[in-house]
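Good morning,

Attaching, inline, the backbone tokens for the sequence recovery test we're adding to the shared suite. The designed sequence is right after.
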């Protein structure tokens, strides 16, 4: 007889403190070590992903002036990042409703991702408003004064991400590199947290649907639908969460050679409902394919697996090896501005373990085994990871603990996706 459980049964076991909850990493390590572990042994597996996810925007509503001080806003920016005004005009209320896109930017170094992180860190934000009658209002605000602040995604938590190479001689700027992308086949960059990714753990969406409760950047949120361009082969999710509960170390700006992007994180519980779910949650990096595309035309040039690229999750810095170069390429190209060359210090909260510094540093002061991918006889070094497996692993552990402590309930989706 096929083994089954319902979400309600699992939720009851969680409530009674009887549920066995494992992170995807713990489960995969058990499978890898040959441990005898079966469907009966686990109720919930916590999955997570953290990385550059452009399809993210914030909806904010806040007071910028006294009631009746202006009729309507026509332009708004926050820390210089342009926002879309509306859709509600808030006529004569002194309030603005705005939408800010994650990839919108003030300049090549500061964009929506930086702004969202500053908001979540409760930093003071400069607000500039132009009104329809030609007035300019300058003020400041913080997240505490912003009554409504939701982060929404149009396409996050992809099942299959890609790796990129430049198959041509000419170097190009790209959102997939921090400096000019070198070719032909000189370097490889990739995204995705492999065996930790929520949609690698539940690719058929047997457990994930509209209303599934998640953690987005550490705050409780919900899946609200399928993401844009989501398909059975390449599903992704749309979600929402209140920015007031988010933690700044789980989101931020990410500078690429083509401008600023945003990185953000999700953690998703996978209740083990049946043997099909169980077989999928056990999948290891070595079984998860990673397609390699040419950055020019996005056409496939090969394939590898996540086992080739996830060998070492953390990047280390040895300050005694720093030779104090006149111009530090790490300080100027670190995508999250985590490295302070003068203080010879890495800000661990900002560092997203992307690994760019390992190849950029002239004194070999940074180390991490980033992996090498073999394509058509060529050995191509990984030079950039646009996902942070270490943080994803941390988030999966946080979600596990919340479930065990009774601070996060497993919710039943209210609608399923067509996969
Ligand atoms: S490139 Fe490396 S060695 Fe040179 S200053 Fe920067 S951290 Fe130090
Ligand atoms: S891994 Fe290196 S380049 Fe990447 S964010 Fe950290 S310090 Fe910066």
């Amino acid at each position: 007889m096929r083994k089954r459980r319902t979400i309600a049964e699992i939720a009851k076991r969680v409530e009674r403190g009887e549920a066995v909850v494992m992170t995807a990493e713990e489960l995969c390590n058990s499978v890898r070590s040959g441990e005898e572990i079966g469907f009966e042994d686990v109720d919930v597996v916590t999955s997570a992903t953290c990385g550059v996810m452009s399809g993210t925007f914030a909806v904010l509503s806040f007071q910028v002036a006294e009631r009746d001080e202006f009729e309507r806003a026509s332009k708004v920016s926050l820390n210089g990042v342009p926002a879309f005004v509306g859709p509600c005009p808030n006529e004569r209320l002194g309030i603005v409703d705005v939408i800010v896109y994650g990839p919108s930017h003030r300049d090549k170094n500061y964009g929506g991702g930086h702004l969202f992180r500053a908001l979540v860190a409760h930093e003071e934000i400069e607000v500039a408003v132009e009104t329809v009658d030609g007035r300019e209002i300058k003020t400041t605000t913080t997240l505490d004064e912003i009554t409504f602040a939701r982060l929404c995604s149009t396409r996050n938590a992809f099942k299959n991400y890609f790796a990129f190479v430049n198959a041509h001689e000419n170097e190009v700027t790209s959102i997939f590199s921090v400096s000019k992308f070198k070719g032909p086949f000189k370097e490889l960059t990739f995204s995705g947290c492999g065996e930790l990714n929520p949609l690698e753990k539940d690719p058929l969406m047997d457990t994930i649907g509209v209303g599934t409760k998640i953690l987005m950047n550490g705050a409780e949120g919900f899946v609200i639908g399928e993401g844009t361009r989501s398909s059975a082969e390449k599903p992704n999710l749309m979600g929402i969460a209140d920015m007031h509960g988010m933690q700044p170390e789980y989101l931020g700006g990410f500078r690429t050679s083509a401008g600023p992007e945003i990185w953000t994180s999700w953690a998703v519980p996978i209740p083990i409902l049946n043997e099909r779910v169980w077989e999928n949650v056990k999948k290891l990096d070595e079984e998860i394919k990673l397609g390699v595309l040419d950055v020019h035309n996005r056409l496939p040039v090969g394939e590898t697996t996540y086992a080739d690229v996830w060998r070492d999750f953390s990047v280390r810095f040895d300050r005694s090896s720093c030779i104090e170069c006149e111009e530090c390429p790490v300080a100027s190209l670190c995508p999250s501005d985590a490295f302070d060359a003068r203080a010879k210090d890495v800000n661990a909260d900002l560092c997203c373990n992307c690994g760019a510094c390992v190849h950029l540093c002239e004194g070999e002061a940074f180390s991490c085994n980033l992996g090498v991918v073999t394509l058509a006889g060529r050995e191509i070094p990984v030079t950039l990871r646009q996902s942070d497996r270490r943080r994803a692993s941390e988030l999966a552990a946080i979600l596990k603990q919340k479930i065990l402590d009774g601070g996060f309930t497993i919710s039943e989706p209210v609608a399923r996706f067509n996969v």
